[in-house]
Amino acid sequence: MRIDKRKIALIGTGMVGMSYAYALLNQNVCDELVLIDVNKERAIGEAMDLNHGLAFSGSNMKIYAGRYDDCSDADIAVICAGVAQKPGESRLNLLKRNTEVFKSIIDPVTSSGFNGIFLVATNPVDIMTRITCTLSGFNPRRVLGTGTALDTARLRYLLGEYLKVDPRNIHAYVMGEHGDTEFVPWSQAMVATKSITELCEESHGSICAQELEQISEEVRTAAYKIIEAKNATYYGIGMALTRITKAILGNEHSVLTVSAMLRGEYGQSGIFTGVPCIINQNGVQRVLPLSLSEEESEKLEQSCQILKRSYEELEI
């Protein structure tokens, strides 16, 4: 008798990958986790460390260091591997080096017979997700990146602090590139079923658009501040990866702002960028278009054009 298992192949055991693995263990998200890294000794050590905590968790996961062949029956291949930007290195050169890394990963993963879903965290995530789709030849709906999922969580946290409302009751999104051209479509932001623009109008100045834009800027620059303070960000993105993974394995049909291919939505085609999507066991079930204002549509257009140019410069 075959018992279906929830299996994840994690490629890249750096701080992001292991923050993700630690969250998976604590939340009992999967049954089997294989760690794959070019540094095999590190993957072995990380697997040992996680296994030694199993007795304290509510999980019964099988955790081990493996090879690309172990991806053959995985439900999700999560890519956290990549090279760091060197001082003075151009963004394009970093992209080219990370493209070479991805070629060395995706070819053996697909050759193993893997037929699941690719989930990408490596930055710049929108372009690396598109590269994954191109190199794998997979249906774009089965290739997604973390996109602006973490940015959206940061936004809801900051809005919750500002409005004194539980962030889980705030429905607001960050869209576009996971980077400098991301933006908040305030026309679509809600507290329960009340729009934030209405709250502004009714608050007699206690809630104002200027302070909302300041929150938007805090969200956009959060990673820079964290990196300045501690050299890297990993807990937040590890939790974001875990949330997306749960939506896939649980067939939740949850709305998350992942990096997905646009195929006519918002007037864009072939671009991977952060947009609200319905996520289920098949990956991106569909992009959920929002009714953006003219100004917001222009911001998304600008973000998509920058992503398009960056990808075309790679000449893949």
TrEMBL record:
<dbReference type="InterPro" id="IPR011304">
    <property type="entry name" value="L-lactate_DH"/>
</dbReference>
<keyword id="KW-0021">Allosteric enzyme</keyword>
<dbReference type="InterPro" id="IPR022383">
    <property type="entry name" value="Lactate/malate_DH_C"/>
</dbReference>
<feature type="binding site">
    <location>
        <position position="104"/>
    </location>
    <ligand>
        <name>NAD(+)</name>
    </ligand>
</feature>
<dbReference type="InterPro" id="IPR018177">
    <property type="entry name" value="L-lactate_DH_AS"/>
</dbReference>
<feature type="binding site">
    <location>
        <begin position="121"/>
        <end position="123"/>
    </location>
    <ligand>
        <name>NAD(+)</name>
    </ligand>
</feature>
<comment type="function">
    <text>Catalyzes the conversion of lactate to pyruvate.</text>
</comment>
<keyword id="KW-0963">Cytoplasm</keyword>
<feature type="binding site">
    <location>
        <position position="146"/>
    </location>
    <ligand>
        <name>NAD(+)</name>
    </ligand>
</feature>
<feature type="domain" description="Lactate/malate dehydrogenase C-terminal">
    <location>
        <begin position="148"/>
        <end position="313"/>
    </location>
</feature>
<feature type="binding site">
    <location>
        <position position="37"/>
    </location>
    <ligand>
        <name>NAD(+)</name>
    </ligand>
</feature>
<feature type="binding site">
    <location>
        <begin position="123"/>
        <end position="126"/>
    </location>
    <ligand>
        <name>substrate</name>
    </ligand>
</feature>
<dbReference type="Pfam" id="PF00056">
    <property type="entry name" value="Ldh_1_N"/>
</dbReference>
<comment type="similarity">
    <text>Belongs to the LDH/MDH superfamily. LDH family.</text>
</comment>
<dbReference type="GO" id="GO:0006089">
    <property type="term" value="P:lactate metabolic process"/>
</dbReference>
<dbReference type="GO" id="GO:0005737">
    <property type="term" value="C:cytoplasm"/>
</dbReference>
<dbReference type="InterPro" id="IPR001557">
    <property type="entry name" value="L-lactate/malate_DH"/>
</dbReference>
<feature type="modified residue" description="Phosphotyrosine">
    <location>
        <position position="224"/>
    </location>
</feature>
<comment type="subunit">
    <text>Homotetramer.</text>
</comment>
<protein>
    <recommendedName>
        <fullName>L-lactate dehydrogenase</fullName>
        <ecNumber>1.1.1.27</ecNumber>
    </recommendedName>
</protein>
<feature type="binding site">
    <location>
        <position position="98"/>
    </location>
    <ligand>
        <name>NAD(+)</name>
    </ligand>
</feature>
<dbReference type="Pfam" id="PF02866">
    <property type="entry name" value="Ldh_1_C"/>
</dbReference>
<dbReference type="GO" id="GO:0004459">
    <property type="term" value="F:L-lactate dehydrogenase (NAD+) activity"/>
</dbReference>
<dbReference type="InterPro" id="IPR015955">
    <property type="entry name" value="Lactate_DH/Glyco_Ohase_4_C"/>
</dbReference>
<keyword id="KW-0597">Phosphoprotein</keyword>
<comment type="pathway">
    <text>Fermentation; pyruvate fermentation to lactate; (S)-lactate from pyruvate: step 1/1.</text>
</comment>
<feature type="active site" description="Proton acceptor">
    <location>
        <position position="178"/>
    </location>
</feature>
<keyword id="KW-0560">Oxidoreductase</keyword>
<dbReference type="GO" id="GO:0006096">
    <property type="term" value="P:glycolytic process"/>
</dbReference>
<feature type="binding site">
    <location>
        <begin position="151"/>
        <end position="154"/>
    </location>
    <ligand>
        <name>substrate</name>
    </ligand>
</feature>
<dbReference type="InterPro" id="IPR001236">
    <property type="entry name" value="Lactate/malate_DH_N"/>
</dbReference>
<feature type="binding site">
    <location>
        <begin position="12"/>
        <end position="17"/>
    </location>
    <ligand>
        <name>NAD(+)</name>
    </ligand>
</feature>
<feature type="binding site">
    <location>
        <position position="91"/>
    </location>
    <ligand>
        <name>substrate</name>
    </ligand>
</feature>
<feature type="binding site">
    <location>
        <position position="85"/>
    </location>
    <ligand>
        <name>substrate</name>
    </ligand>
</feature>
<dbReference type="InterPro" id="IPR036291">
    <property type="entry name" value="NAD(P)-bd_dom_sf"/>
</dbReference>
<feature type="binding site">
    <location>
        <position position="233"/>
    </location>
    <ligand>
        <name>substrate</name>
    </ligand>
</feature>
<feature type="binding site">
    <location>
        <position position="42"/>
    </location>
    <ligand>
        <name>NAD(+)</name>
    </ligand>
</feature>
<feature type="binding site">
    <location>
        <begin position="82"/>
        <end position="83"/>
    </location>
    <ligand>
        <name>NAD(+)</name>
    </ligand>
</feature>
<feature type="binding site">
    <location>
        <position position="16"/>
    </location>
    <ligand>
        <name>NAD(+)</name>
    </ligand>
</feature>
<keyword id="KW-0520">NAD</keyword>
<feature type="domain" description="Lactate/malate dehydrogenase N-terminal">
    <location>
        <begin position="7"/>
        <end position="145"/>
    </location>
</feature>
<feature type="binding site">
    <location>
        <position position="171"/>
    </location>
    <ligand>
        <name>beta-D-fructose 1,6-bisphosphate</name>
    </ligand>
</feature>
